[in-house]
Amino acid sequence: MSEREDKTHFVDHITGHRRMRRNRKADWTRRMVRETRLTVDDLIWPVFVIPGTNIEEPIASLPGVSRMSVDRLAEAAKKAADLGIPAIATFPNIEMEKRDGTGSEILNPDNLLNQATAAVKKAAPDIGVITDVALDPFTSHGHDGILRDGEIVNDETVEQIVEAAILQAKAGSDIIAPSEMMDGRIGALRHGLDAAGFQNVGIMSYATKFSSGYYGPYREAISTSGLLKGDKASYYIDTANATEALRDAALDVEEGADMLMVKPGLPYLDICWRMKEAFSLPVFAYQVSGEYAMIRMASDNGAIDGERVMMETLLSFKRAGCDGILTYFAIEAAEKLAKA
Q1: 220-278 pLDDT, tens per residue?
Q2: CB 238 within 8 A of CB 318
Q3: Which of 32, 143, 175, 269 is most enclosed, with most CB atoms within 10 A?
């Protein structure tokens, strides 16, 4: 048997013959060993609805995103369903004259949000509709709850959002996603929905909604940025507090939440991971308006490859343990995934 020339390199001695690049050497090997995958099933599309007919109104601080009238939204929902997007999340921008201190318009069975839900379920019955019961689109002060004597009152707000949730369920909402961060809201909503016969309507809790600076474009989209008096720090979670966030989520789990959400998304990937590790429930991240706008505007100005960063960021949520992502990129990402 002839002796072979020893071609061992000193790098082999350094690495102990372990070379990480072997699995990276070609496209087929990279695909074969890929750990995390993003699919259209991971996408939820947040949309904004406005009064009127045949209206699509661009939002300056959210390039590529528009407010849509109910008829346009119904058509957009069909497109989303055709792309395989599982669900949309609807947010209304109602007339200013219908907003008051208590957000009473949310208790109108025929309000804009409920009209949108009914229209979407008729146009695209196979797509899920997720609705919020926070009062900020309905209040004259821009807060998520009822404001009395300078305080956002917890218990009265909870009573009102339970009634609102029942109306939303009657309109066809599949999942109630309460974002107002009042204490006890999840248990109250579960009891209220069950008592009204809506046992099959799910609750996706905004379990950890942080008092963040990333919400600005959203507030423009629903026309609350000029209304807001003070801030929301008395009911949103301090951005520095991870333990408090997990405790808040644990209470929502105990009260009957079916799914949990982290909002915003990218600055809180550590919370996504910890929530997925701590609770045996689906976890979602909301890639909020400020996150979207930064990527879009940087891309529009040539600073980054926007499509690549979009997909990389969405994948990061999956890698952090999320079961899905609410993102304004949903249509664009779904179209790209369909071509892959």
Answers
A1: 999 998 898 788 999 999 999 999 999 999 999 999 999 999 999 999 999 999 999 99
A2: no
A3: 143
Secondary structure percentages of the chain, helix, strand, coil, to 5: 45, 15, 40
What stretch of H or E contains 147?
Answer: strand 146-148
pLDDT of 29 > 80? The answer is yes
Fold of 38-339: TIM Barrel (3.20.20)
CA atoms within 13 A on the CB side of 172: 22
Parallel/antiparallel/unpaired status of strands 56-58 and 259-263: unpaired
Dist CA 316 CA 306 (whole Å): 15
* Angle made by CA atoms 240, 244, 245, in degrees to the nearest 5: 80
Q: Tell me, what amino acid is at 101?
A: G
Q: What is the dihedral of CA 38, 116, 63, 270, to 10 degrees?
A: -40
Q: What whole-number distance in Å separates Cα of residue 221 and Cα of residue 58?
A: 9
Residue of 106, 120, 126 whose CA lies nearest to 168 = 106
Cα 301 from chain centroid (whole Å)? 26
Distance CA 25, CA 332 (A): 30
Instruction: Using CA atoms of 313, 320, 272, 262 in order, give the dihedral in degrees to the nearest 10.
Output: 30
d(CA 319, CA 156): 39
Could you list the active site residues? 209, 263
Helices (H), 181-261: 185-195, 216-221, 242-255
Q: How far apart are CA 103 and CA 161, in angstroms?
A: 10
Give the pLDDT confidence of 8-26 residue by residue, as tens digits.
999 999 999 999 999 999 9
Q: Please tell me whether residue 225 adopts helix, strand or coil conformation.
A: coil
Where do the domains of the chain lie? 38-339
CA distances from 33 to 38, 259, 293, 315 (A): 15, 30, 33, 16
Report, in angstroms and rounded to the nearest whole number, the Rg of the chain calculated over CA atoms.
Answer: 23
Rounded to whole angstroms, how far apart are CA atoms 86 and 45? Answer: 9
d(CA 283, CA 36) in angstroms, rounded, equals: 16
